[in-house]
Amino acid sequence: MEALRKKIEKEGQALSENILKVDSFLNHQMDPVLMKEIGQEFASRFQGREITKVLTIESSGIGPGLMAALELGVPMIFARKRKSLTLTDDLLTASVHSYTKNETNDITVSSKYIKKNDKVLIIDDFLANGQAALGLIEVCEKAGAIVAGIGIVIEKSFQDGGKRLREGGYQVESLARIGQLNVGEILFESEKEMHKA
Ligand code: G4P
Fold this sequence. Notes:
By secondary structure, the chain is α/β, with parallel strands linked by helices. It contains seven helices and ten strands. Helices cover 35% and strands 32% of the residues. A six-stranded mixed beta sheet has the order 4-3-7-8-9-10, with helices on both faces. It has a two-stranded antiparallel sheet with strand order 1-2. A hairpin with a 4-residue loop joins strand 5 and strand 6. The radius of gyration is 16 Å and the shape is globular. The mean pLDDT is 94. The site of guanosine-5',3'-tetraphosphate has 23 residues, from strand 2, strand 7 and helix 5.
């Protein structure tokens, strides 16, 4: 997606070989115009999949998740990482370990909002090792829902989450794929190949 790539080139910062900082439009300040385009792009890539719900995880998945849901005309649910005072219904839970942050969260979704046979589109901001997506898949499985696809804003394709999910048979659509990060340098998947040549 061209607009996203340009935004990453202009405002993204490679903090290390593993971490891309995109606080100015995705992880802290959010760019609503770009988010709208992201929502449209996800909706077009998953057109015809009869999506009934969008599922994401707080907090940075909420922007792109909501915009995708708006375009698809379905509700969006965000899994919580912290306990909610009002979320007291039957809960669907999964344990998500982040290798990047070295922490584990029990994520929760009320069973009221994801039902058997729902066709769920999972959306997240970053795909690294795939742990968040796997946790959201587990939540869907516990509800008896069908995972219709996984939409990612930025995939770090040098980490193994994308491979793992695609090998699991899921349709994974990433709007930007980063092939390599060096401090101060961001290489998209296609450029990494050119670099090697
Ligand atoms: P995984 O789910 O693919 O295994 O990813 P991982 O555990 O490594 O990611 C944990 C958190 O770190 C997630 O945010 C994820 O979005 C974020 N993250 C991973 N790699 C990067 C990166 O290169 N740059 C940025 N900016 N974030 C990255 P989170 O803890 O859920 O935060 P938030 O959604 O509340 O903002």
